[in-house]
């Protein structure tokens, strides 16, 4: 019996020597990809663009150390018959192993997006290195290659510039939103829901924006800027939404966190600024006369941030009237967007998905021609509740005192 225990202990002791870094990768052997771009060529091949970090030229700038003179990224472009083919052929140009685990951005050229996205994401889902949580954007009026070759001030890594801009503009403006690869895949395969993806565009001289001189002036010759929202139908880009139309979609999708809404008081030409600090939307589906009806309820809570007119903001009745005007403005914006997208015949709001979850039997009758028949004819009721919580650090505007 003792021999058995000794044998067992000996085996367990030997196991401790078997552990090791069997899959180790030395940092000096890795080419760390920060962003991937995909375009389609006229011959049908894919053109992959890899934005690779130059570690020695980034570390000092990123950590607040001494400024370095080198360019923080290197961009390689490779063509192949499919996504994997192009990705593997990239190894011919790089002296290190191409490493995707830190890629946090995927850029799709507009021409390819209009042709269709269905063929792109299979390799991204299967590859154990690639993260489907990476953000995805469409290169508006441009190619993914041109977008990824731009050099940006402040954020030395252009991919970080794009992802951070998406994050902060979604929170502060509500006209763009950060969408991941996983979100797009889920929308494409979900019944009654089509993808919607933010766009990014180049403003200025794109050729000059690719050189280091773009980082050495107070006003860059070219810069990257958040664009519109791309709406899709059956995986193909059909239209761009900008401004209030883009925000109308985000209102419905419960993505508006903060945003300014202009309110016009009586006959004044200058608007008051109602700044939403918390937004919330709830979508429900009901049956009326055996037909589905969508009910959208919006709650918008905020402050008066600008009032350059004569008005008594200490009067509760006036505050109540301003709330009603804000509700009317938000509802008008949302309804205009819904009607526009119904004409496009693509359900980017996910109304079909709500009907599917609420009334599966009804959805079974509608799903085959939902985008072309059911969605364009769908009745949508929008109800908005606006709440003005504060008027800022001042009650009445100083212009009232000056004129009195």
UniProtKB/TrEMBL annotation:
Whether Membrane counts among this entry's keywords is: yes
Name where it's found.
Answer: Membrane
Q: Which PROSITE patterns match?
A: PROKAR_LIPOPROTEIN
Q: Output one GO BP term.
A: spore germination
Q: Which domain of life is it from?
A: Bacteria
Q: Where is the Spore germination protein N-terminal domain?
A: 23-200
Q: Which GO terms describe its cellular component?
A: membrane
Which ranges carry the Spore germination GerAC-like C-terminal domain? 228-392
InterPro entries, alphabetized = GerAC_N, Spore_GerAC-like, Spore_GerAC-like_C, Spore_GerAC_C_sf
- What Pfam families does the record tag this protein with? Spore_GerAC, Spore_GerAC_N
Q: How does it sit in the membrane?
A: Lipid-anchor
Tell me where it mainly resides: membrane
Arranged from A to Z, the UniProt key words for this protein are: Germination, Lipoprotein, Membrane, Palmitate, Signal
Q: State the similarity comment.
A: Belongs to the GerABKC lipoprotein family.
Name of this protein = Spore gernimation protein KC
Organism, as annotated: Heyndrickxia oleronia
Lineage of the organism: Bacteria, Bacillati, Bacillota, Bacilli, Bacillales
């Amino acid at each position: 019996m003792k021999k058995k225990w000794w044998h067992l202990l000996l085996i367990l002791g030997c196991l401790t020597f078997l552990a090791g870094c069997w899959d180790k990768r030395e940092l000096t052997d890795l080419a760390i990809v920060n962003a991937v771009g995909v375009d389609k060529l006229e011959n049908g091949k894919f053109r992959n663009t890899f934005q690779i970090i130059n570690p020695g030229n980034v570390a000092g700038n990123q950590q607040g150390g001494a400024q370095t003179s080198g360019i923080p990224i290197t961009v390689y472009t490779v063509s192949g018959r499919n996504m994997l083919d192009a990705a593997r052929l990239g190894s011919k140009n790089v002296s290190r192993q191409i490493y995707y685990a830190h890629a946090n951005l995927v850029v799709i050229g507009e021409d390819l997006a209009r042709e269709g996205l269905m063929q792109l994401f299979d390799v991204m889902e299967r590859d154990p290195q690639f993260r489907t949580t990476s953000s995805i954007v469409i290169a508006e009026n441009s190619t993914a290659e041109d977008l990824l070759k731009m050099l940006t001030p402040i954020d030395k890594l252009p991919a970080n510039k794009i992802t951070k801009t998406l994050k902060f503009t979604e929170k502060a403006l509500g006209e763009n939103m950060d969408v991941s690869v996983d979100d797009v895949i889920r929308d494409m395969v979900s019944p009654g829901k089509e993808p919607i993806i933010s766009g990014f565009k180049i403003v200025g001289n794109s050729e000059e924006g690719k050189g280091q001189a773009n980082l050495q002036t107070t006003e860059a010759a070219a810069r990257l800027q958040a664009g519109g929202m791309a709406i899709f139908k059956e995986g193909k880009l059909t239209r761009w939404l900008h401004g209030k139309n883009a925000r109308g979609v985000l209102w419905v999708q419960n993505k508006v966190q903060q945003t300014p809404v202009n309110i016009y008081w009586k006959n004044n030409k200058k608007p008051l600024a109602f700044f939403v600090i918390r937004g919330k939307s709830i979508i429900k589906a009901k049956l009326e006369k055996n037909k589905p009806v969508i009910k959208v309820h919006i709650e918008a809570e905020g402050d008066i941030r600008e009032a350059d007119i004569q008005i008594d903001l200490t009067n509760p009745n006036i505050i109540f009237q301003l709330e009603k005007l804000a509700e009317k403005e938000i509802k008008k914006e949302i309804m205009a967007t819904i009607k526009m997208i119904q004409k496009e015949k693509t359900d980017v709001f996910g109304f079909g998905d709500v009907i599917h979850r609420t009334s599966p039997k009804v959805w079974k009758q509608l799903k085959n021609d939902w985008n072309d028949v059911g969605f364009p004819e769908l009745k949508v009721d929008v109800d908005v509740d606006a709440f003005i919580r504060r008027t800022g650090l001042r009650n009445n505007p100083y212009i009232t005192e000056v004129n009195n």
